[in-house]
Structure formats: C-alpha cells, structure tokens
Amino acid sequence: MKYHFTYKIDDDGVWGNCCEVPDLYAQGNSVDDFKKNCEEALNLMLEEPEDSQVEFNLPEKKYDKKKNTIQVPVYPEVAFGMMLRIYRLKHKMTQKQAAEKLGMKNVYSYQRLEKKSNPTLSMLKKVTEVFPDMQIDMLLN
Predict the structure, then answer these.
(1) Is the pLDDT of residue 50 over 70?
(2) Could you give the CA distance from residue 8 to residue 96 in angstroms, rounded to a whole number?
(3) Per residue in 77-124, pLDDT tens?
(4) What is the pTM assigned to this prediction?
(5) Is 70 exceeded by the pLDDT of residue 14?
(6) What is the C-alpha to C-alpha distance for residues 137 and 139, in angstroms, rounded to an integer?
(7) What is the rounded CA–CA span in Å between residue 121 and residue 125?
(8) What domains are there in the chain, each with its CATH number?
(9) Do 111 and 95 form a contact (C-beta atoms < 8 A)?
(10) Half-sphere exposure of 77 (CA within 13 A, CB side)
(11) pLDDT at 138
C-alpha cells in the first residue's frame, strides 16, 4: 500500500503534503530525506489515530503519475490495522462487535489487530469472512 506526497523544492529544501491524508506534511533537506520523513510521518499517523473512530482515506491511483509526486509505502503491519479499522467502521461495528464476530475472547485482542500487527493466515481468513469486501490485495501493493 502506497500513499502519495506532492512536493516542492526551494532554497530551504524539500517540503510537501500527502494527497490522501489531509494535514499530513513533511519536509527534508533533499528528496531522499523528504521521502524518509514522509514514510515516518505517514506510518505514525496511520498507526496512532486519535481514537478508534478515525477513518483515513485509502490511496488513490489517480496520483500515480502526477508531476512532483512520490509514492510512500505504508508498513504492512500498519496497513492491515488501518484497513481493518476502515472496514469495521464501514460496517458500523464497534470494536467489541468486531471482536465477537471474529471469535476473539475479548476486545483487547481485537484492539491489538487495529494497531501494528502481523495477523496469522487463520486470522486473515476470519477477517475476510467478516468483511468480505475488504481489499486485502491492496495491502500487497
């Protein structure tokens, strides 16, 4: 999963913002430094939303070839948790309801999935049964 950042270069360095996540900005001394800072800022924001009701936009392909735009990868363990939260909210479920549907013992186990996580294949299977419209393949791009 890759998000897009547009950037400008001036005498002070490189600066820009994320196309899909409003109010996410980064800067750097060079384009490489800028890209590294974008990756760190993006993953921190997606991993640590203000609460369990925050829903981020998914990446959009329309930015793939836009001038002065870079693609910034989301860490797989962060991408899964973020996408799980998006689909839980889309299906109008609480974390407790999602935990119950997934057969988890408690809501805390589910909350760990919405954080930085590396789910097992059996958990991925359960998730796709509860959220059949979830675009798991998007996590691999």
Answers:
(1) no
(2) 44
(3) 899 998 999 999 999 999 999 999 999 999 999 998 988 888 999 999
(4) 0.82
(5) yes
(6) 5
(7) 6
(8) 2-73 (3.30.160.250), 76-140 (1.10.260.40)
(9) yes
(10) 9
(11) 83
As a whole number of Å, the CA-based R_g of the chain is 16
Residue 6, strand partner residues: 17, 69
CA torsion angle for 111, 44, 82, 5 (degrees, to 10)?
Answer: 170
Question: Which two structure tokens, joined as six digits, stand for 62?
Answer: 């329309």
State mean pLDDT over 15-22: 93
8 Å CB contact between 119 and 125: no
DSSP 16-77: EEESSSTT-EEEESSHHHHHHHHHHHHHHHHHS-SSTT--PPPP-GGGTT-TTEEEEEPPHH
